[in-house]
Amino acid sequence: MGDGNTDADIVIIGEAPGKKEDEQGLPFIGAAGKFLNEMLASVNMNRSDVYITNIVKYRPPDNRDPLPAEKSAFWPYLVRQLDVIRPHIVVTLGRHSMEYFLPGTKISEVHGQPQSVTIGDSELVVVPLYHPAAALYNGSLRQTLKDDFMKLPKIIKVLQNEKENK
């Protein structure tokens, strides 16, 4: 279902497990996971500081994109995970996880920008980012993703200050 700290300030959500992830039952352990680990290290964090999961909990056949019905079927599980963890920030990686939080939004227009959303009874701050795999295949996205990732500590700090001043 996921991996990491269930008391994390950040929950990172991908789309679905790849082959290695499916085999080992852990999210983001292949090439995209290594890049994610590098980005976490760049902001002085590691995997044990965050919780990582996917919107779809199993690997779609032939590694195809998850279908809308698959994402809908797993949405209640993801909402429950977020209710339990209560993160300050939800980081969506790629358009498949982003579109459930920000329907009708284009990732190219909102990447790296915090967005307030209401899911059930919870107010969440969602930060949509490009998927690490996209940055591996498209070198021009690599620096964009790194730059967006570097914004996360500042966003957390602002949210913590707002929370303390309430």
Give structural notes.
The protein is an alpha/beta fold and 166 residues long. The chain has 8 helices and 6 strands, in the order E-E-H-H-E-H-E-H-H-E-E-H-H-H. The termini are far apart. The relative contact order is 0.17.
Amount of helix: 40-55%
Strands in their spatial order, largest beta sheet: 1-3-2-4-6-5
Report on the biggest sheet: 6 strands, mixed
Q: How big is the Rg?
A: 15 Å
Please report the total strand number as a whole number: 6
Strand content: 15-25%
User: For the residues shown, what is the average pLDDT?
Assistant: 91
Low-confidence stretches: none
Q: What class would the helix/strand composition place it in?
A: alpha/beta
Order of helices and strands: EEHHEHEHHEEHHH
C-alpha geometry: globular
Please work out how many helical segments DSSP would assign.
8
Amino- and carboxy-terminal Cα gap: 33 Å
